[in-house]
Amino acid sequence: MIHNDSKLGRRIALLRKEKGYTQEKVGDLLKVTPQAISKWEQGNALPDTLLLPPLARLFGVSIDYLLTGESLAGKAGPYDGEYRKENFYWGIQPSELAGQIIDILQGDTANKRLLDIGSGEGRDAIYFAKCGLQVDALELSAPGVEKIKRYSRLSGYAVNVIHADMIGYDLAEEYDVIYSHGSLQFLPPAERRKHFDKYKQYTKTGGLNAHLIFVEKPFIKLAPDWERNEFFFSSGDLAGYYHDWEILRCGEEIIDCDSAGIPHRHAVNCILARKI
Ligand SMILES: C[S@@+](CC[C@H](N)C(=O)[O-])C[C@H]1O[C@@H](n2cnc3c(N)ncnc32)[C@H](O)[C@@H]1O
């Protein structure tokens, strides 16, 4: 039960204006009257619980944030401190996998939508936007979200930043590309199957999914910044999830990394697959 709260109304009004939507537009998208939106904003009525997920999605915030005005501070990631710094922890060079997606698209990016899950500071999200894609950048870390927005402003390439937890995040529309780079280890193993099913379901036929994930190897030491809520994949997991798609690339390699300022190695598995 949500308490009637004019702060919630003010937040809805603020988020709506930030997105540049009128009450009519929001009403249209949520299939409610503009009067209903006006009542919520004035604190005279509350949105139906079932409308909270689409409302949060529309504004690019978590339900948590929509209701409380607080970011998911309790679930802050290990990178928050790094993302607050001026420099870019992950650099601004796009990843190799991001470049491969652009190569496959061969310039056919107009009106194509891409979801980048766990965007970090936005190096790939901005690159995709620069290449002409419409990008939704989903990130849990509040400082990460701020950094992506700043990078977007400075570079002049617009991305739609979604401050949300990928775990349980509902997709509303289909994408041409769903992408993640080094972030799906934050999905607890019991959650993986349904999340991959969702990513596949919300990809257009002919569209792409591309992921880089970390696999466990006995000869690779745990990275210095590996957290307790990160879970390794096993070799072959990704190919298993995409067994019914056309696999364009699937490979495993050992990469060097010096995140946390300490040189170390990761075993990674990349997949690039097309929905048939
Ligand atoms: C290893 S970083 C990779 C960042 C970016 N993809 C890149 O390659 O530069 C993983 C990212 O996933 C984000 N993340 C962790 N858990 C998340 C969750 N539950 N929902 C959304 N993002 C999450 C972290 O905050 C972090 O920015």
Topology:
Elements: H1 6-18, H2 23-30, H3 34-41, H4 52-59, H5 63-68, H6 80-84, H7 96-105, E1 113-117, H8 123-130, E2 134-139, H9 142-155, E3 160-163, E4 175-181, H10 189-201, E5 203-214, H11 237-241, E6 246-257, E7 264-274
Helix pairs in contact: 2-3
This protein binds S-adenosylmethionine.
S-adenosylmethionine is lined by residues 77, 79, 90, 95, 118-120, 123-124, 138-141, 144, 165-167, 181-183, 186.
What does this molecule look like?
By secondary structure, the protein is of the alpha/beta class. It has 11 helices and 7 strands. The protein has helices at 6-18, 23-30, 34-41, 52-59, 63-68, 80-84, 96-105, 123-130, 142-155, 189-201, 237-241; strands at 113-117, 134-139, 160-163, 175-181, 203-214, 246-257, 264-274. It has a 7-stranded mixed sheet with strand order 3-2-1-4-5-7-6. Helix 2 (23-30) crosses helix 3. It is globular and about 60 Å long. S-adenosylmethionine (SAM) is lined by residues 77, 79, 90, 95, 118-120, 123-124, 138-141, 144, 165-167, 181-183, 186.
Order of helices and strands: HHHHHHHEHEHEEHEHEE
The CATH class name of the largest domain reads Alpha Beta
What does the main sheet amount to? 7 strands, mixed
Number of domains: 2
Mean pLDDT: 91
Give the strand order, joined by hyphens, for the main sheet. Answer: 3-2-1-4-5-7-6
Low-confidence stretches: none
Pairing-aware structural class of the strands and helices?
Answer: alpha/beta
Backbone shape:
globular
Ligand list? S-adenosylmethionine
